[in-house]
Design a protein that fits this description.
By secondary structure, the chain is an alpha+beta fold. The protein is built from seven helices and five strands. Helix 4 packs across helix 5. This is S1 motif domain-containing protein.
């Protein structure tokens, strides 16, 4: 385990999509939770079951050395990864990414940053995606202007994708944008 300061330094140097070579360290419950990966950074890596194939036989086994991409990193001292090798990736990854993380391709190469208060640009982007998905013609800038928060603590009440309809507690961080 590393100190919080060391974790912030490590996380501050990570970029979405950055390729890291790792060794599968543990597959605790195949088909249930995912795999733990040693990526040599002093913190562990983890691949969620949602990114892995449904066929457990296609999962990398303990000791497998392969490439992974940085998928997410937040305040937990763990780097969330996705397999680079399509053999270890869910079969419908393209469809999955369009549903779950439509901004992934634009995130690639961007620094992984703290999930602090949502910026107006992030809120606009979320609202654009939501409106497009729902087939509405409202522009995000109109929505943001009509519902502009007076402080970051009210942002969660504006967009269920950010705060599940609940205001953020003072000092709380919003969940990662997916």
């Amino acid at each position: 385990m590393v100190t919080d300061a060391e974790w912030e330094r490590i996380r501050g140097n990570l970029r979405f999509g950055q390729v890291l070579r790792g060794t599968v360290a543990n597959v605790p419950r195949p088909g249930a939770i995912g795999i733990f990966v040693d990526i040599g950074l002093g913190v562990g890596g983890f691949v969620d079951v949602l990114l892995l194939p449904k066929q457990v036989q296609r999962w990398p086994v303990e000791g497998t050395v392969t490439d992974f991409e940085v998928w997410w990193a937040d305040s937990r001292q763990q780097v969330r990864l996705k397999p680079s090798d399509p053999h270890y990736l869910r079969d419908d990854f393209t469809d999955f990414i369009a549903r779950v993380r439509p901004g992934w391709t634009s995130d690639i190469g961007q620094l992984v940053r703290d999930g602090g208060p949502v910026t107006e640009q992030e809120l606009t982007s979320l609202l654009d995606r939501q409106a497009h998905h729902e087939g509405r013609n409202t522009t995000a800038s109109q929505t943001v202007q009509a519902a502009a928060p007076t402080s970051p603590s009210t942002t969660g009440a504006l967009c269920p994708a950010i705060g599940a309809g609940q205001p953020l507690a003072p000092g709380a961080r919003r969940p990662p944008l997916t």
